Amino acid sequence: RVRHPETRWRINMLVRDVADMIESHAPRSAGVPGDQLGLLAGDPDAPLAGVVTCWSPTLQVLDLAADRGANLVISHEPLTWEVCGRDPEAGLEWYQERHPTAKAPNQRRLALIAARGLSVYRYHSNWDWAPRFGMVDMLARLMELGEQAAGPRVAPVYRIGPTTVGELLRRARSVLQTGPLRVVGDPARTVTRVAICHGGFGQMFTFPEVARDAGAELALFGEMLDYTIRYCVEIDLAAIELGHYRSEHPGMQGMADFLRQRIAQEIPVECLPSHEPWRLL
After folding, report:
1. ∠ CA 70-74-27 to the nearest 5 degrees?
2. pTM for the full predicted model
3. Contact 279, 159 (CB under 8 A)
């Protein structure tokens, strides 16, 4: 059989060997300083039985990964829920919040991991901008945006042929297999410069100005707040909200593709959906 030049054709791999593969393509140093990256739970020296990539390591994903025979789960989002209701540096506390170790979802996830012999790694900001297989490049390819023409890495801008907001909306719904999406601006508006602001960048009130300053006329956001939407309106930036999960799941599919090219075929690699746990009624 023809071998990929970087493929490690051996079955007796360890969990940490997979981490080495990923970090050779997307080193931790490429991530945002202070971001949580690497091993979160489990044994890095365990023999590798199978790999699951996912956007969020929910209880359902972790359980299904173990059912499939995998012992390594690689997620994009955190394994445990942290404290978010206070800012120690500012001395600001909105409500009394349980310590992370006392939060029921954290206890359940960690207990399941221990009981089922899983190891969990997280690759976040380093995988956002990983070449070809990461969040941004995978989304840009699915949306047929071509090559980046301008903008910083947090809001890359792509120059496309004249296209209406409505046409880009229909394309997004088709390739990401979504239902209705929130749209900011006139669907009939024609745009030629599109920014990708994936994941949670739309949770920051004034982030749209980064895309607008880079020349974007429309931004594809992951998750947007009401404040962010109103900011888009006031700076005349059209926007389509894809959903946090929908905008980043392709990047975890990309990670699975990346690993399949480098791991012996006898070791299964699968990307499991984290799903959207709500419905529109």
Report:
1. 135
2. 0.94
3. no
